[in-house]
Amino acid sequence: xxxxxxxxxxxxxxxxxxxxxxxxxxxxxxxxxxxxxxxxxxxxxxxxxxxxxxxxxxxxxxxxxxxxxxxxxxxxxxxxxxxxxxxxxxxxxxxxxxxxxxxxxxxxxxxxxxxxxxxxxxxxxxxxxxxxxxxxxxxxxxxxxxxxxxxxxxxxxxxxxxxxxxxxxxxxxxxxxxxxxxxxxxxxxxxxxxxx
Length: 196
Prior knowledge:
Layout: H1 2-28, E1 40-48, E2 53-62, E3 65-83, E4 90-108, E5 113-127, E6 131-147, E7 152-158, E8 161-169, E9 175-182, E10 186-195
Antiparallel strand pairs: 1-2, 1-10, 2-3, 3-4, 3-9, 4-5, 5-6, 6-7, 6-8, 7-10, 8-9
C-alpha cells in the first residue's frame, strides 16, 4: 500500500510540475490553438489504490466521445462485503473476474491534457473456498489524461460507484443480498496509442 501511495504522489507531482511549466510557456508565447485530435484505439494497464490490476481497451468514436472496456477484480481479490441479512462485515480472499464498460465524453484542455467523464456499468463474479457470488453496479468516471509522448498516455481517474450482488455459501444454507458502494476508487493507467 505504501508503494502505491508513493507512486501516486510521484506521478501527481510530475504532472503538476509539467502543467505549471507548460502554462507559463503559453502566457509568454502565442495563444493556445487546439490541436487536431487523432482518432484511434488505445490499450493499457490499470492499477487502483487497492492494488487491483486490470487491462483497458479504448476506442475514440469522434473528437468528444469514446468507448472503453476494462477488466475489474481480476485474479485474487479481497472482498469486504456488508450483507443486508448479516450486518457484520466479513472479509474473504476470492478469485474474481469482471468487466466495466465506459461511455466517455472528452474535452481537450491543451496540447497535453484531456478531461473525460462518463457512466460506467460493471458486472463480475467471484469464488472462494467458502462462498461464491455475482455482482453488478454502476459508477461515474472522472479522469484526466496526460500525453507522455506521441504513443503513450498516463491517466488518473476517480470512479465512485454503487453495486448490488448475490452471495451463497457452498453449503447452500446461507444466501445473502449484498450492497456495496465505493468512493475510494482512485486509479492510474498507462495507455499505448494504436492509430487506425
